[in-house]
C-alpha cells in the first residue's frame, strides 16, 4: 500500500511543516503564485487523503465531493495567532496615537500639528473578549489605561483577570476612547458598526478593527471620519481586500490601513503551519487532534 496523499494548497507553507508531512506522506503542492485558483486546487483533489488548506476561499461540499472516497479530513491553517494579532492591533493603535499618517507632510514648527490621542488614563472598550480580546486586555494594562470595558453575549469569568467590566454595546460605545473590534463575523455582527453605532461614539474616539471587514459599514465609517464624528480609525481588515486604489478610506488622513497582517510574523506563521501539519498527522493516524475545531 502506497503512502497517503496530502494536498497542500500553497507552495509557500513554512518549510518545517512541509518537512514534517513529507516524512510520512506524499505531498502534492500547488505551485502557482501568488496563489492557485479554486479550480487549480479542485483539479488536484481526486484521490487525496487530506487537504492542508491555506487560503482565503471557502472550503465547501464541492471540495469534499471532488476529493472522493479516500478523503479523510480537511485541516485549515490553525488559529495560533493570538499573540501576533494582538501585537498588530496595538501597533495600529500606536500609529493612531501619534498620528503617523502624515501623507509626506512635515510641519513640526506648529504646536498643534499632527496631535494624536493617548492611551494613558483612557477608557478602552473591546467588542469580543475571546482569545485575541483577552490577549489585548493583558497588554493594555502596561499603558495605564483608566478602565477596560468589554461586551458580548454574556460576562466571561476570565474578565476578572484583567479587571474588565462587562457592559452593553451602547454603553461601551458611549464611554470608550478606544473601541477595539475582536469579535467573529456572523449574521449578528455584520455591519454592527453602522451610522447608528458611530453616532453614539465620542468625537475623540478611535476605532480599531482586527476582526473582519464586514463588521464595519465602510460607507458609514467614511462619513464618521470625514465629519469628525469620530477621531480616527485603524483597519487591519476591510472589504474587499485589497481595497480599490480609489477607495475613499485610502485617502483619509485620519485612517490607518494595513493589509490584513494580523498573523504576519515568522514565528506565528510557522506555528500555524506546524500545528496544522500535526493535526493532519493525528487525523490520518487516528489519534486525537492537538487542536480540534
TrEMBL record:
The keyword Oxidoreductase applies. One of its GO terms (cellular component) is cytosol. PANTHER family: 2-HYDROXYACID DEHYDROGENASE-RELATED, FI03731P-RELATED. PROSITE patterns: D_2_HYDROXYACID_DH_3. GO terms for molecular function: glyoxylate reductase (NADPH) activity; hydroxypyruvate reductase (NADH) activity; NAD binding. Residues 103-262 form the D-isomer specific 2-hydroxyacid dehydrogenase NAD-binding domain. It comes from Timema tahoe. InterPro entries: D-isomer_2-hydroxyacid_DH (IPR050223), D-isomer_2_OHA_DH_cat_dom (IPR006139), D-isomer_DH_CS (IPR029753), D-isomer_DH_NAD-bd (IPR006140), NAD(P)-bd_dom_sf (IPR036291). This is Glyoxylate reductase/hydroxypyruvate reductase. Pfam families: 2-Hacid_dh (PF00389), 2-Hacid_dh_C (PF02826). Belongs to the D-isomer specific 2-hydroxyacid dehydrogenase family. Keywords: Oxidoreductase. Residues 7-290 form the D-isomer specific 2-hydroxyacid dehydrogenase catalytic domain.
Amino acid at each position: 500500500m502506497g503512502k497517503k496523499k496530502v494536498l497542500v494548497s500553497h507552495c509557500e507553507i513554512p518549510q518545517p511543516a512541509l518537512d514534517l508531512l513529507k516524512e510520512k506522506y506524499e505531498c502534492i503542492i500547488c505551485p502557482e503564485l501568488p496563489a492557485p485558483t479554486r479550480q487549480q486546487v479542485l483539479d488536484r483533489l481526486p484521490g487525496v487523503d487530506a487537504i492542508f488548506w491555506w487560503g482565503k476561499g471557502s472550503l465547501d461540499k464541492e471540495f469534499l465531493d471532488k476529493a472522493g472516497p479516500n478523503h479523510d479530513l480537511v485541516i485549515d491553517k490553525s488559529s495560533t495567532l493570538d499573540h501576533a494579532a494582538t501585537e498588530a492591533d496595538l501597533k495600529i493603535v500606536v500609529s493612531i496615537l501619534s498620528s503617523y499618517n502624515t501623507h509626506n507632510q512635515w510641519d513640526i514648527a506648529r504646536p498643534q500639528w499632527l496631535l494624536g490621542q493617548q492611551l494613558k488614563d483612557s477608557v478602552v472598550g473591546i467588542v469580543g473578549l475571546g482569545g485575541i480580546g483577552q490577549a489585548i486586555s493583558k497588554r493594555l494594562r502596561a499603558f495605564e489605561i483608566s478602565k477596560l470595558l468589554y461586551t458580548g453575549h454574556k460576562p466571561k469569568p476570565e474578565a476578572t483577570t484583567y479587571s474588565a467590566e462587562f457592559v452593553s454595546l451602547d454603553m461601551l460605545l458611549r464611554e470608550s476612547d478606544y473601541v477595539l473590534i475582536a469579535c467573529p463575523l456572523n449574521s449578528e455582527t455584520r455591519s454592527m458598526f453602522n451610522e447608528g453605532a458611530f453616532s453614539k461614539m465620542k468625537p475623540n474616539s478611535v476605532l480599531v478593527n482586527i476582526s473582519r471587514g464586514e463588521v464595519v459599514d465602510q460607507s458609514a465609517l467614511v462619513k464618521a471620519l470625514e465629519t469628525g464624528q469620530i477621531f480616527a480609525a485603524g483597519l487591519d481588515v476591510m472589504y474587499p481586500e485589497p481595497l480599490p486604489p480609489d477607495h475613499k478610506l485610502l485617502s483619509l488622513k485620519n485612517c490607518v490601513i494595513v493589509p490584513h497582517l494580523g498573523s504576519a510574523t515568522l514565528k506565528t506563521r510557522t506555528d500555524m503551519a506546524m500545528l496544522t501539519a500535526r493535526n493532519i498527522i493525528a487525523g490520518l493516524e487516528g489519534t486525537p487532534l492537538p487542536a480540534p475545531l
